[in-house]
Design goal:
With 331 residues, the protein is an all-alpha fold. It has one domain: ABC transporter involved in vitamin B12 uptake, BtuC (Orthogonal Bundle), CATH 1.10.3470. It has 13 helices and two strands, in the order H-H-H-H-E-H-H-H-H-H-H-E-H-H-H. The protein is globular and about 90 Å long. It comes from Alkalibacillus filiformis. InterPro entries: ABC_transp_permease (IPR001851). Its main location: membrane.
Length: 331
């Protein structure tokens, strides 16, 4: 049980990068970008091919992220310069990326099991450092059963994800970032102030898909392979992470919102892992579980808010009745 939950948290932190990319396009720019399903594979495929070709895993990962950035920029160009509907532009790019990814990879699956990846390069130093024993002793001191796994991937991904989060928080508070947020809120208003909204949308969608591709590159190295179909449903998973995070942790500021997205990605993975342990559910039900989670995250806050509003109205009505009764008695 503990190993399953730890694996869920571990994968949740990796997919949190993808969720941050989805947050940037859907919440900041209000752009329904379906390129995500394709750019996720682009990141994994480009990184996989580069690693198999002998490139440094760090450079290969950055190259995968850059390829996703280019794909996102093309989607932005299709929408802004080609005047294609945002949803349709994303769908067209997603379809095109399937063939592009297959062409880049040369085959449906690129294996990295026997290659030097980002995680295997750090492993030798990690084992010598003794961090696993240190973390396991902390867990044992808390009364939890001894954990036999490694903390390498979890620690590296927490550090990397928090670095990306801090960068995104900082970027969205810069002049360009504020203009990007304003473009998402009111494009006509920011255009009236002589801002280049087309350029901002292209950059925003590019960065969004760059983060998605970065997540794909890391997921590919984590799993040991890149597959042309591994991006199917990524947009739904990203949206689920964003919605669940906002429902549980709030979205009052950018710092809280991005942290909520990371928390949402982890909670989503934990809930899916727990659900799949139920006897009558299997791995084929994962998409159904995701749909139910998204529906619950969307509907539950509104139901709670409606219930609070109803109580507030009843309380106000009761106060008015008491006041009228008091005026009658005093008269």
């Amino acid at each position: 049980m503990l190993i399953s939950l730890f694996g869920a948290v571990e994968s949740g932190v990796i997919y949190a990068l993808m969720a941050l990319g989805v947050y940037l396009s859907f919440r900041i720019l209000h752009f329904p970008d379906l390129t995500v399903d394709g750019s996720f594979v682009t990141g994994a495929g480009v990184a996989g091919v580069a690693i198999v070709g002998g490139m440094s895993p760090i450079l290969a990962t950055l190259l995968g992220a850059f390829a996703g950035f280019i794909a996102g920029c093309i989607t932005g160009v299709l929408h802004t310069k080609g005047k294609i509907n945002a949803l349709l532009a994303g769908i067209l790019m997603m379809i095109a990326l399937y063939s592009i990814n297959l062409r880049l990879m040369g085959q449906p699956t690129v294996s990295m099991l026997n290659e030097s990846t980002l995680f295997t390069q750090i492993k030798s130093w990690w084992v010598a450092s003794g961090f696993d024993a240190f973390f396991n002793n902390i867990v044992l001191s808390l009364g939890v059963e001894r954990f036999s796994g490694t903390w390498l991937v979890f620690t590296v991904m927490v550090i990397l994800t928090l670095m990306v989060k801090v960068f995104l928080d900082y970027f969205l508070k810069t002049e360009v970032g504020l203009a990007l947020r304003a473009t998402g809120d009111n494009q006509k208003m920011i255009r009236s102030l002589s801002a280049n909204t087309d350029g901002l949308i292209i950059i925003g969608i590019g960065i969004s898909n760059g983060l998605v591709a970065l997540s794909g590159a890391l997921v590919g190295q984590y799993g040991g392979f890149a597959n042309v179909n591994m991006g199917i449903g990524m947009i739904v998973i990203g949206l689920a992470s964003v919605i669940i995070g906002e429902a549980l942790f709030g979205k009052r500021t950018i710092i809280i919102a991005t942290l909520a997205v990371i928390g949402g990605a982890i909670v989503y993975r934990i809930v899916v892992t727990m659900a799949l342990r139920v006897d009558f559910l299997d791995s084929g039900d994962m998409k159904l579980i995701t749909a139910v989670l998204v529906i619950a995250a969307l509907v539950a806050p509104r139901m709670i808010q409606a219930r609070k509003e109803k109580k507030r109205r009843l309380r106000k009505k009761a106060e008015l009745l008491q006041r009228k009764e008091g005026e009658v008695h005093s008269a």
